[in-house]
Amino acid sequence: MKPTLLIMAAGMGSRYGGLKQLDGVGPKGETIMDYSIYDAIESGFEDVVFVVRKKFQQEFEEKVASKYDGKIKYTIVTQEPDDLPVVFMPKQKREKPWGTGQAVLAAKDVITKPFAVINSDDFYGRDAFKCLSDHLSQLTPKDKGNFCMIGFYLNNTLSDSGSVSRGICSTDNYGNLTKVEEHSNIRREGDKILGEGMDGVEKELPLNSCTSMNMWGFTLDYMQDSEKQFKEFLRHNLEDPKKEFYVPSAVSHMIDEGKANVKVIPTPSTWFGVTYHEDREKVVEKLKEMTNEGIYPSPLFR
Q: Which residues share a beta bridge with 198?
């Protein structure tokens, strides 16, 4: 069974400014997301679901999604702060959506088979998509708790323009995910990588640390369980405008409850993206280089 790809494209890109998803960085004005779609098609994905904000939906469809007509089936759903179960009505208006966990749940009514989840503004590489597709294609809608995560090497996920935050992963002896710990202020200093754990203590991190870049593979039961978790999250955080419900948190809870097994699939692919405005020029150069090497056609979609 060919899987579905869900792309979280509702973020505003506050550090970069503007809607990063619509920024043309390829030789013919392609977006980073265009390369994800191309790699997904080449890797065997059958359809894609985009999660966007309502106020950008029309622009998104006209400038981005329409170019995929005839290439891959797509559906657009929206994520808004007030898209909550009917029993939850916050007293104060919230401006930002409730995080990546809510973004995935925005697509629960349109996804009917095993699916992958990625960010819209991250370049993951063909190998990563092939690994995801290979795992998910073996599953059926009846399978439960058979998840996967693409694990990048920390050294392949950094920005030269500033520090980043990353989820550093721990695995058991069988390569299954046991924990994702968020680290912040990660940056290179000489030949070392330094970062701060959740305790705020700075430490050196191994270059080959297994790192989550929000590239997941799920069976359908993820939706049902994470929806229950989201309701519980709202019971405790409904009036806190800064709290967010994250995919890694939902996954960790399912692991702890014995409801899911998450296979970590390592990839040598080098991640890149526009975390900072200064990153853009290097992304443009890298995509031009890959096009010149024949890895990607130009234009990407004819």
A: none
Q: State the residue for tokens 């996954």.
A: 251
Which pLDDT score, from 0 to 100, does residue 114 have?
98
Distance between CA 38 and CA 30 in Å, rounded? 11
Alpha carbons 258 and 192: distance in angstroms, whole number: 36
Radius of gyration of the chain (CA): 19
Task: Give the strand pairing for 73-78 and 146-153.
Answer: unpaired
For 5, residues 6+ apart whose C-beta sits below 8 A from its C-beta are 36, 37, 40, 45, 47, 48, 49, 115, 116, 118
Strand partners, 181: 168
Phi-psi region of 249 (alpha: psi -120 to 50; beta: other; left: phi over 0): alpha
Question: 196 by DSSP, 3-state: which?
Answer: strand
pLDDT tens-digit profile of 88-119?
Answer: 777 777 888 889 999 999 999 999 999 999 99
- Residue 59's CB is within 10 A of a number of other CB atoms, namely 13
- The answer to whether the beta carbons of residues 71 and 301 sit under 8 Å apart is yes
Q: How many CA atoms lie within 13 A of 135 on its CB side?
A: 24
Cβ pair 273, 123 in contact under 8 A: yes
pLDDT band at residue 20, thresholds of 50, 70 and 90? low
- Where do the domains of the chain lie, and which CATH numbers do they carry? 4-292 (3.90.550.10)
Determine contact, residues 157/167, Cβ cutoff 8 Å: no
